Amino acid sequence: MQINKKKKLVAELSILSNIFLTVLKIIVGVISGSISIISEAIHSMSDLFASVITFFSVVKSAEPADKDHPYGHGKYEDMSGFIEGLLIIGAAIFIVYESSKKIIFNTSMEPNNNLGIAVMCIAVVMNIFVSSIIFKTAKESNSISLYADAQHLRTDVYCSAGVFIGLILIKITGYSILDSIIAILVAMVIYSAGYKICKQSLMNLLDHSLPTEDLEKIKQIIENCSNVIVLKKDGIKARQVGPTKDIDIVLQFPQNTSICSCHKICDEIEKKIQSVYLNSSISIHSEPICYNADCEKSCNNEYCKNNV
Predict the structure, then answer these.
(1) Would you give the end-to-end CA distance of the chain in angstroms?
(2) By the 8 A CB rule, do 120 and 163 touch?
(3) Is the pTM of this model over 0.90?
(4) DSSP string spanning 238-271?
(5) Which residue in 81, 32, 28, 87 sits closest to 58, CA to CA?
(6) How far is CA 162 from CA 28, 77, 122, 167, 196, in A?
(7) 134: nearest Cα among 153, 158, 161, 156
(8) How many CB atoms lie within 10 A of CB 168?
């Protein structure tokens, strides 16, 4: 419950910081006439929309399972991440379009650099501070939507720093076309971030398996728990659903293992996996180990007859 409150608080912080920076960049961009600052304002506006979506998804995903959503609401976060990625990509395309027009039709004008340099410096400092807080919370809660939001702000740091350097170069050289060129470079960074977020979110929405290293880690935990059990071939299935890892395991036990012993071993495995993957939902299915010779001699179980 505490982590959900923290997620909500950092989502609210993201909204407030993005409102401030969006308004500031729009005002300064219009006053200075800098296309790179206006492109940054558009980027911050997409950040603002993304922050609002993140806030909604964080609140919704924290709701417990209900009749209509028996597996919980975790995929709201994955959907949020995908929408945020699309917003980032859309903002990048718009910036390239506007900047290209200025280069082709030679409509670039020398911006008011002093004002632009000051606002970009403010943007860099603010976004480093806010994105660091959100990244930390995203890691603690394993939240894809908070990660996407933090990534949004982190690309804004790089872009604002790029515009900051570019405005200084324009001030030194007097080449105003650099303003549009910098804006296109900013857009390329933005597009790359959007693509990565969309890809990860879509993989989660389509129930893509967890990375091989995670599956191997789970397998190692199981094998270290007991020498009685056998992990069935392809007996681990795992996926990411919002902030939660869903893990399904099939274990095989000797036929003389008591239900109590079986349950105790399964509980031990579940606790050890959850100590590594804090926010995980684990389901373990138990089956008998069947050897042909043993079953032919002593086992009348229908399962064994059908699987020897």
Answers:
(1) 48
(2) yes
(3) no
(4) EEEETTEEEEEEEEEE-TT--HHHHHHHHHHHHH
(5) 81
(6) 17, 30, 13, 9, 21
(7) 153
(8) 14
Nearest CA among 96, 92, 89, 94 for reference residue 148: 89
- Helix locations, 63-176, DSSP H: 75-104, 113-141, 144-173
pLDDT tens-digit readout, 174-217: 777 777 787 788 788 778 878 888 888 887 777 778 888 888 88
Residue 165, number of CB atoms within 10 A of its CB = 13
**Residue type at position 242:** G
Of 108, 277, 75, give the one whose Cα is nearest residue 181. Answer: 108
Q: Which residues contact 16 (CB under 8 A, 6 or more apart)?
A: none
Residue 297: the pLDDT is: 46
Go through the chain and tell me how many residues it has. Answer: 308
Rounded Cα distance, 297 and 308, in Å? 12
| Sign of the torsion formed by the C-alpha atoms of 194, 199, 202 and 203 | negative
CA atoms within 13 A on the CB side of 151: 26
Domains of the chain, start order: 2-205 (1.20.1510.10), 212-307 (3.30.70.1350)
Task: Quote the Cα angle for 177-179-182, to 5°.
Answer: 115
Q: Is 283 helix (H, G, I), strand (E, B) or coil?
A: strand
> pLDDT tens across 129-186, in order?
998 998 888 888 777 778 777 877 887 787 788 778 877 888 788 777 777 787 788 7
Which has more pLDDT, 281 or 125?
A: 125
Among 51-60, 67-76, 269-278, the range with the most confident prediction by mean pLDDT is: 269-278
Q: How far apart are CA 115 and CA 30, in angstroms?
A: 11
* pLDDT of 292 over the 50 cut: no
More confident residue, 174 or 219: 219
pLDDT > 80? residue 16: yes
Q: Cα–Cα distance between 308 and 290 in angstroms, integer? A: 6
